[in-house]
Design a protein that fits this description.
By secondary structure, the chain is of the alpha/beta class. The chain has three domains: 201 residues, Rossmann fold (3-Layer(aba) Sandwich), CATH 3.40.50; 105 residues, no CATH class; 101 residues, Helicase, Ruva Protein, domain 3, CATH 1.10.8.60. 50% of the residues lie in helices and 12% in strands. The chain is built from 18 helices and eleven strands. A hairpin with a 2-residue loop joins strand 6 and strand 7. The longest helix is centred in the N-terminal third of the chain and has 22 residues. It starts with 8 loop residues before the first helix and ends with a helix. Bound molecules: adenosine-5'-triphosphate and magnesium ion (MG). Magnesium ion (MG) binds next to helix 4.
Length: 468
């Protein structure tokens, strides 16, 4: 498990600080929620089950980092994470849509996560075994082209039981000589023949059925069909370079060393204990006034659908039943029109932690442009570096960009940090187009250049509306 589990709230906040500027209150709330999970694991079992997660609602205007926070959190926590838009469940014909699919997606994520971790654990062993197999393949004289070799019957146990082709005796000294040369990288270009798995044909079944409650059935159908003979993947012999074969063999060895049943068991456990569901756009399913007809009815319906999984229920998945009692839910919404108090009371009660995110100002934009590890200026620098161009921004330029962003947000709609994307695109449009044919290798963006490019756009109301 990740060491983040053991991070103190302060440490979690400082990790989040590396990607998200400001929003201290939200970071704090998230850090506490995460730490509480860690604490809960250490509580005596009788009480442990009683401690439910303190779900969070993040309230704040668009583009201020709500989704970004949740995404970073999940990465840090090494926890299975899914993000769903609550509005997805209100589409016509989708009322009452299988909200349990959220949990199924979550386990799916967990399986992926746990499998990766386990693969990582066996990697050294897999590398070693792959090397041994490569050496034997190299020692074996290239197989004479077998004329009309009968198709090997596929045996249900795969590679493990398949009989190895009769191998000529190879002396130990020959093997160690090969090992030495292989390790020295002298044999990378040699060709070897190995068995690879070919995936079965894609199933054209997805979304054959529509409407409520059909997902579970679709899933079962594809499972059944996927097990029919002919639909399963097959193994084929393929010739490839040693360098490529090493990768394939390592993967094969690693998957063989990982016990999938164990992975599934751990994945279910991980989902139950540390899964995080991010419910975006929750404000869009809150209805004002309540008890009206029309769209409000379906909105409330969505909330009622969500309630059981938020409250804790058991969902059946293909990896077994999953209890959602301790899954952490983080909801987010702008709540411009509706208020948190417009949600149905049962749901409100399930989200005891409320945090507000502040709207971003010029000084925040300056930091967002430069500080995060994935800051926009860095992204453009990296992109242009691939063309051999050294791009830099002066402090003055960043200040100017930030104030244009703030101004555009004031004049048009406030779209928060997303404004920086449009501003940067507008600024670097010309350079991005000409980069590959440019003779100068060093480009310095200073305040004067920023103003020269952006001022005319800002001056014209029409232009700024469309471009920025
Ligand atoms: N405080 C911040 N620090 C760094 N980057 C930010 C911050 N706020 C927003 N961003 C950047 O702006 C973009 C949009 O942010 P995000 O997706 O989190 O918005 P949001 O708050 O979820 O908005 P919405 O309500 O529209 O979903 C992202 O690319 C994100 O990296
Ligand atoms: Mg969002």
């Amino acid at each position: 498990m990740s060491n983040l589990q053991a991070f103190t709230p302060r440490e979690i906040v400082s990790e989040l600080d590396r990607y998200i500027v400001g929003q201290h209150k939200a970071k704090r709330a998230i850090a506490i929620a995460l730490r509480n999970r860690f604490r809960r694991q250490r509580v005596a079992p009788e009480l442990r089950d009683e401690i439910v997660p303190k779900n969070i609602i993040m309230i704040g205007p668009t583009g201020v980092g709500k989704t970004e926070l949740a995404r970073r959190l999940a990465k840090l926590a090494q926890a299975p994470f899914v993000k769903v838009e609550a509005t997805k469940f209100t589409e016509v014909g989708y009322v009452g849509r299988d909200v349990e699919s959220i949990v199924r997606d979550l386990v799916e994520q967990a399986v992926e996560l746990v499998r990766k971790e386990q693969l990582e654990q066996v990697r050294t062993r897999a590398q070693h075994q792959a090397e041994e197999r490569l050496i034997r393949l190299l020692a074996r004289p290239p197989a004479p082209a077998e004329p009309a070799a009968p198709q090997q019957p596929i045996n249900p146990f795969g590679f493990v039981l398949s009989k190895p082709p009769a191998e000529p005796q190879i002396s130990d000294s020959e093997l160690s000589e090969l090992r030495k040369r292989l390790r020295a990288g002298e044999l990378e270009e040699r060709q070897v023949e190995i068995e690879v798995d070919e995936p079965g044909p894609a199933l054209p079944l997805v979304s054959m059925f529509g409407g409520a409650g059909m997902e579970e059935m679709e899933r079962k159908m594809s499972e059944v069909l996927g097990n029919l003979p002919g639909m399963k993947g097959q193994t084929r012999r393929r010739t490839m370079r040693v360098a490529e074969a090493r990768r394939v063999l390592e993967d094969q060895e690693a998957s063989r060393l990982v016990d999938m049943d164990n992975v599934k068991r751990l994945a279910v456990e991980r989902t139950e204990q540390s899964g995080i569901v991010f419910l975006d756009e929750i404000d869009k399913v809150a209805s004002r006034g309540g008890g009206q007809h029309g769209p409000d009815v379906s909105r409330e319906g969505v909330q009622r659908d969500l309630l059981p999984i938020v409250e804790g229920s058991t969902v059946s998945t293909k990896y077994g039943p999953v209890r959602t009692d301790h899954v952490l839910f983080i909801a987010a919404g702008a709540f411009h029109v509706s208020k948190v108090s417009d949600l149905i009371p049962e749901l409100q009660g399930r989200f005891p932690v409320r945090v507000e995110l502040e709207s971003l100002r010029k000084q925040d934009f300056v930091r967002i442009l430069t500080e995060p590890k994935n800051a926009l200026t860095r992204q453009y620098q990296a992109l242009l570096q691939t063309e051999g161009i050294e791009l830099s921004f002066t402090e003055d330029a960043v200040e100017a960009l930030a104030s244009y962003a703030a101004e555009a947000n004031e004049r048009a709609e406030n779209i928060g940090a997303r404004r920086l994307h449009t501003i940067m695109e507008a600024l670097l449009d010309d350079l991005s187009f000409r980069a590959s044919e440019l003779s100068e290798r060093v480009v310095v963006m200073d305040g004067a250049k920023v103003r020269a490019t952006l001022e005319p756009i800002m001056q014209s109301d029409d232009l700024s509306k469309y471009i920025l």
